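Weekly puzzle thread! Below is a chain. First person to post its structure in token form gets bragging rights.
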Amino acid sequence: MLFPFLKYLQPTNYFSVLRKNDRSIFPVASQLDSHILEQLEVETAYQMEHAKQYDLSWQAIQKGYIGNAQTIDEVEPTSLIDNYTFIRRYFNKAWVSYVLLLRLFSFKNPFKELKAWYVTKAVKRSSYLNQPLDVNNWNDFKSNLIEEQPMVTVVIPTLNRYEYLKDVLEDLEKQDYKTFEVIVVDQSEPFDADFYSNFNLNLHLIHQKEKALWLARNTAIKSSKGSYLLLFDDDSRVDVNWISEHLKCLDFFKAQASSGVSISKVGAKVPLNYSFFKVSDQLDTGNVLIKKEVFKDLGLFDRQFEKQRMGDGEYGMRMYLNNYLNISNPNAKRLHLKVSTGGLRQMGSWDAFRTKNLFDPRPIPSVLYFYRLYFGNSRSKLALLRTVPISIMPYKFKKNKAMLVLGSLVSLVVLPLVLFQVRKSWKLSRIKLDEGPKVETLRNE
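Winning reply:
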């Protein structure tokens, strides 16, 4: 990590780990083109010159730098004051206080910590996301890939959502890009084969009796004819140019994956941090186009995540470590309805950290399996501190800051229960780690 304090705030971020070629994603700031540097904010409060350069590098990636500059692969230590300067620039004051408390409770020198926290109070928080880097020539770019008309396979697992799947398939009928097939893996009970008879699509239906999401996606990928896999959810709506925007993104950036963005309400704005092109630090299998060659190289989805969460996050991490380029694509939007019935919600969880039953493990064990597999036990524990307390409040309050703070206080009141839930999840994740990944290879055609 460029700044050690990031381990408290982003302990399981993809970019905190070196890739398998021992390279980071962060460019050496002095190697960036002048037109990139002109769009970055220089902070003069840093004590060390290399800390200032690290800030520019981190800022470049966050603002959408996608390029081939030399990367920072060996990080020099940064001072305590520079670390507090950094987090004050990029994180809410509440999280700065959170880091201070963690440091004090970790028996760091309280005089040094409080001094560094105090002397950086004048550092202003950056509004860097409001000024993303310019993407030259995007609007004028004519995609040769779209002209070539490669076959795209749209993969849709579904479970008891025929009402919403109807809209999904009708949206696909209206796409301006026509060279695609649709594979639906239907796990519904009762199963209704007649439902699919009236759609004007190149549609292939697989009836899967076992209710298993990652098995469904893997089965569809193995059955696909396309050289590109477009993974989709059964409770989503998209515009007519959805497929073409994904293909254009791959072509423009010479990438292997295009990760679309999700909104939850009609007319809602794309979240600021997903409103521009950038190297993606997540992968959402409800809206992502991936070259088939990636699956041939890395294998299919890990079935350790079956009926649980973060299987897509793990695959994104696999891609990142193996130097595949995954672009966050603001133009490939979907409306994600997040309906309360059917799908993975029917299998027992609202999200990765909120359980349905009082004595269920928290977080879902597959989450800790992913964290521990790639980031180790120490950072996994930091991730638990960062996420578990605020997950005490129900899912509907997930974006309510006041309720999240209240959740942190409530977690202290019910601490014995929370510790029981976390310990249970830790033990179950250990079983998964001992078993190892359940990743099937994709054979070449």
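Puzzle host: Confirmed. Bonus trivia for everyone else. The two ends are 40 Å apart (CA to CA).
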